[in-house]
Amino acid sequence: MLINRIYDYKKFERVEDETGNRVYLTPTGAHPSVTTILDATENNEALVAWRERVGEKEAQRIKEEATGLGSLMHEHLEQYVQELPRPGGSNIVRKLASNMADQIINRGLVKLDEIWGIEEPLWFPNLYAGTTDLIAVYDGKPSICDYKTTKKMKSRDKIENYFCQGAAYSLAHNEVYGTDIRQIVIFMVSRDLQYETFVVESDEFDKYADRWIEKVDLFYRMNNQS
Q1: pTM of the predicted protein model
Q2: How confident is the model at residue 195, as a pLDDT?
């Protein structure tokens, strides 16, 4: 797989502020993470109701299980695209992470023409920052790509925050590196190994870029009032 490092991506530290939120120490100062902004501006009533229904202890267990599986699958994919040995292990979680990564490799990454960056931190000066899984040319178009795991496959209308996240990274890359990335690609795999590629481009990209900008504006207005 061709890795073409066109841009000199800056590395910067990620820390937690006094409230526990993720903050990036970017070249233009400390900025809130994309996920912090999404969480703060999201209607979390359904999530709160779920935590109350299953109990705090069980909710935390499920969250940690999903996070561990997702991290391991990401590690498989990061190693694969760099042509490095993938993680081993034969327990259930490690086998599942490997099988889930295989779905993305065999059904999603086959359309990558070249890779510009892997796990790169991006920032929009004085507004926000975050880390994207992959910056690449997908099916002929420069794209922001993200790997996502899910317990059960989600429909397009249930993952709008993923599209906002992709728009955030696209706008940041365009601002700092002078590009015109207008395609978001989400590689999603479920635990029962269903797979989907979700692509956002053209007018739909503009819709989610506008929605993301609205969220950023709301986030700062909320914090200025607190």
Answers
A1: 0.89
A2: 98
